Fold this protein.
Amino acid sequence: MKPKLPQQIFVSGIGTNVGKTVVSAILAEALQADYWKPVQAGGLNFTDTHFVQSLVSNTQSIFHTEQYALQTPASPHYAAKQDGVSIDIASFQFPAIQNRLIVEGAGGLMVPLNEQHTVIDFVKQYNLSVLLVANNYLGSINHTLLSVAALKQAGIPLLGIIFNGDRYLDNAEIIQQLSMVDCVCYVGKANELTKDFVSAGAAKLRQQLEAHYEL
């Protein structure tokens, strides 16, 4: 019997700029899920929430306001200090939802939210399950395996790895072999990010998720 896919899914990357926001859009479209990025640092004129909303076609997804919208494009702990605020991981108010909720993190798992806590502490605090986004590049094997090891050490459920972008050597295969974590989906590189690209990726991702989980 397949396990049920959780109601709340945390999307993290193995680092910055690995495509987790695009994957979050594809996931929201695939599941007709709501989207929430609790902490946005920089880019307030066109946030990740705006970006995801611009790529999602379905009418069921709701896009929730960030709890912390910080001015400086930097690590959240530093951006918060620049704004004269402190991020308290015990104070997050999750949005009320009717659908599933995709929660997108800031950067990778070890990015500091304040001087005591990192993103992985947030995940642990709220008992979230993780989909890990890996990009294929030289060094991504190390970055992915370290992220998987950190999740396992923290006792956080890892739903799978999504490989984003062009395939690189045998990175995906060796990562799956060494981590013993399934690849949920491959997201190809887009020449242009459009709703059509996201819709096509969503159909593929939903099919892959159905192979692993009860939706």
